[in-house]
Every structure is written in C-alpha cells, then in structure tokens.
C-alpha cells in the first residue's frame, strides 16, 4: 500500500481510484463495509481510502480527552491488511476545514485526487460546518465525473457498529465486545520504552509502551496476545498486560506494561502490537510487594488459561 499525504504527491498512477472516504478510527466492521462497497463499485480500479490527519475532532475539540482508538500508523497497517492500494492521508487544516461541500468535491476529490468513484457511510458529512450530505456528494459526482455509492450503517446484535460503541466497551472492560464490533482484537501499538525496570526485580520483566493520544481502556490487567513487529524476536507471544497508572508505586501517567510468557530477550526500541483479549481484574493497590507478586502469578495463570482456549 502506498501512502500519500499531500495532493502534490498524487501521480497519474494514483488517479482513477475508487475510494472509501472517512476517518476510519479503529477500522471496524462498519468501515470495512464502506471499503468493500468501494471495491465492488469499480473492481478494476485501484482501491483507495481517503482519510484525514489529524482526526478532525482533534481540531474541532482540542481540549477534549484522548479518544482515538488507533493512531495513523496502526490505522495504515490495518487498511493495508484489507487490500487497500492507496491511502490518501490528507492534512486536516484550516484550509481544508474552510472548504464548502462543492469546493471539497471539486478541489479534493475530483481535481486533487482524480477519483473515479467515491464511497461513504450513510451518515457521512463533509465541507465547512459539516454542511454537505450524501445528496450533495451525488450531485457533485454527476457534475464532476465521479461515481458515488453509499454503504448502509452496520448493526451487530441490534447495536450500531461505531467507534463510540467500541470506546464504551473498552471503557467498561469489555474487550471481547469491542472485538466483535471491530472484527479484530483492539490493539495498542508502539515502540518499547525504557521504564523503571521494576518488574524484573519481581521476576516479571515488562515491555512498557505509551498510550498518549489514545482512548484509555478500563484500567486493570488483561490477557493479551502480542505481535513483536520488529527486531530479532519478531513473532507472536501470549502474555498479561497492566493498563493504568500503577497506584502501588504512586505513578499517575497511564501506560501499558506487558509481560510476555516464556520470553527471554531485549525488546527496547522494537515495536509491539498488543491485542487486548480479556479483562482479568481492575487496577489495585496492595499491602506489599509479596501480595502483589502473588496476584501477578495468579493473573498470569488465568491469562494462560484464557489464551490457551483461543482457536
């Protein structure tokens, strides 16, 4: 998959694509329906995704708590797995924000990207003040020479599939329900950072990762499946992870610390993708280190049991 981040990078090779348009935070089942609709609309054309960085909500509500399910790197990796050929990751700035619906279609979709077909979800809004509706997109497509199709909103068990519903499930410690809406495990990706190295003194060396800018799942301990994406230890490992602020040690910056089962090696500087499989227990403060270590052994035993039952 090729990633283009400005209109100046769009070459003749990239023009003529059929593209799904949206933010694609989490790349959930509803997003996949939009992408599949775009693919079916013009099966002989290159398949593209048009998205925006930063997320428009970060521009409109800069003081809001972090809400994103995925950063741009994780989103790109997921889209590549779905067979997307071109990712048009356009900068969402004041210039783009000020475009009218008609100007957005003309300057971005038609002249800028040269799309042959555009596909959106049924609730898509675009242009200044989100004034554009599906009927406006269809009208512009007819005038400017690109086709338009719409994917119906997807439901699962009577619940609409949405990033909001997924965030709610994660906030409540229901990663399996989040995974059902996503169509895959929710993952936290990033480089392994140097921490206090406290876990190794307990016999549980952990890989520490930041969650800056991301929606925080319920704080606590999880059974996890970990992909080591780079370095000599690349592969998949089971483990247990602590998500939270480590109240036992008076720290208050949320991160994720992951213990990989049956692993020996140095992961500093490598990239991990940690899939939250099951919530084991809330974060807690213990009377002493011995009690904490005993609980960690119990957590790992439970996580091994859960992960061993996965197909």
UniProtKB/TrEMBL annotation:
<dbReference type="Pfam" id="PF01687">
    <property type="entry name" value="Flavokinase"/>
</dbReference>
<comment type="function">
    <text>Catalyzes the phosphorylation of riboflavin to FMN followed by the adenylation of FMN to FAD.</text>
</comment>
<keyword id="KW-0285">Flavoprotein</keyword>
<keyword id="KW-0067">ATP-binding</keyword>
<comment type="similarity">
    <text>Belongs to the ribF family.</text>
</comment>
<keyword id="KW-0548">Nucleotidyltransferase</keyword>
<dbReference type="GO" id="GO:0009398">
    <property type="term" value="P:FMN biosynthetic process"/>
</dbReference>
<dbReference type="InterPro" id="IPR014729">
    <property type="entry name" value="Rossmann-like_a/b/a_fold"/>
</dbReference>
<keyword id="KW-0274">FAD</keyword>
<keyword id="KW-0288">FMN</keyword>
<dbReference type="GO" id="GO:0005524">
    <property type="term" value="F:ATP binding"/>
</dbReference>
<protein>
    <recommendedName>
        <fullName>Riboflavin biosynthesis protein</fullName>
        <ecNumber>2.7.1.26</ecNumber>
        <ecNumber>2.7.7.2</ecNumber>
    </recommendedName>
</protein>
<keyword id="KW-0418">Kinase</keyword>
<dbReference type="GO" id="GO:0003919">
    <property type="term" value="F:FMN adenylyltransferase activity"/>
</dbReference>
<comment type="pathway">
    <text>Cofactor biosynthesis; FMN biosynthesis; FMN from riboflavin (ATP route): step 1/1.</text>
</comment>
<dbReference type="GO" id="GO:0009231">
    <property type="term" value="P:riboflavin biosynthetic process"/>
</dbReference>
<dbReference type="InterPro" id="IPR023468">
    <property type="entry name" value="Riboflavin_kinase"/>
</dbReference>
<dbReference type="InterPro" id="IPR023465">
    <property type="entry name" value="Riboflavin_kinase_dom_sf"/>
</dbReference>
<comment type="pathway">
    <text>Cofactor biosynthesis; FAD biosynthesis; FAD from FMN: step 1/1.</text>
</comment>
<keyword id="KW-0547">Nucleotide-binding</keyword>
<dbReference type="Pfam" id="PF06574">
    <property type="entry name" value="FAD_syn"/>
</dbReference>
<keyword id="KW-0808">Transferase</keyword>
<dbReference type="GO" id="GO:0008531">
    <property type="term" value="F:riboflavin kinase activity"/>
</dbReference>
<dbReference type="InterPro" id="IPR015864">
    <property type="entry name" value="FAD_synthase"/>
</dbReference>
<dbReference type="GO" id="GO:0006747">
    <property type="term" value="P:FAD biosynthetic process"/>
</dbReference>
<keyword id="KW-0511">Multifunctional enzyme</keyword>
<feature type="domain" description="Riboflavin kinase">
    <location>
        <begin position="181"/>
        <end position="308"/>
    </location>
</feature>
<dbReference type="InterPro" id="IPR015865">
    <property type="entry name" value="Riboflavin_kinase_bac/euk"/>
</dbReference>
<dbReference type="InterPro" id="IPR002606">
    <property type="entry name" value="Riboflavin_kinase_bac"/>
</dbReference>
């Amino acid at each position: 998959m090729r990633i283009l981040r400005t209109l100046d990078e769009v070459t003749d090779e990239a023009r003529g694509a059929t593209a799904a348009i949206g933010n694609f935070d989490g790349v959930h089942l509803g997003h996949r329906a939009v992408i599949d609709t775009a693919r079916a609309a013009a099966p002989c054309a290159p398949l593209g995704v048009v998205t925006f960085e930063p997320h428009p909500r970060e521009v409109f509500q800069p003081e809001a708590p972090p809400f994103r399910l995925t950063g741009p790197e994780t989103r790109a990796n997921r889209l590549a797995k779905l067979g997307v050929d071109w990712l048009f990751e356009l900068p969402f700035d004041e210039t783009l924000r000020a475009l009218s619906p008609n100007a957005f279609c003309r300057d971005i979709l038609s002249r800028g990207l040269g799309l042959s077909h555009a596909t959106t979800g049924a609730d898509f809004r675009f242009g200044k003040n989100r004034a554009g509706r599906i009927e406006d997109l269809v009208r512009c497509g007819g005038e400017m020479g690109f086709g338009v199709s719409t994917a119906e909103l997807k439901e699962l068990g009577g619940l609409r599939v949405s990033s909001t519903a997924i965030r709610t499930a994660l906030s409540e410690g229901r990663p399996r329900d989040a995974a059902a809406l996503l169509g895959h495990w929710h993952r936290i990706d990033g480089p392994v950072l140097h921490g206090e190295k406290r876990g190794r003194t307990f016999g549980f060396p952990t890989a520490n990762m930041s969650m800056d800018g991301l929606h925080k799942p319920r704080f606590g301990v999880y059974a996890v499946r970990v992909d080591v994406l780079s370095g000599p230890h690349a592969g998949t490992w089971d483990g247990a992870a602590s998500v939270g602020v480590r109240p036992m040690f008076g720290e208050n910056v949320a991160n994720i610390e992951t213990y990989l089962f049956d692993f020996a090696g140095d992961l500093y500087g490598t990239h991990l993708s940690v899939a939250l499989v099951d919530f084991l227990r809330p974060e807690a403060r213990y009377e002493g280190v011995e009690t904490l270590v005993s609980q960690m052994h119990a957590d790992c035993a439970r996580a091994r049991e859960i992960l061993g039952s996965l197909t």
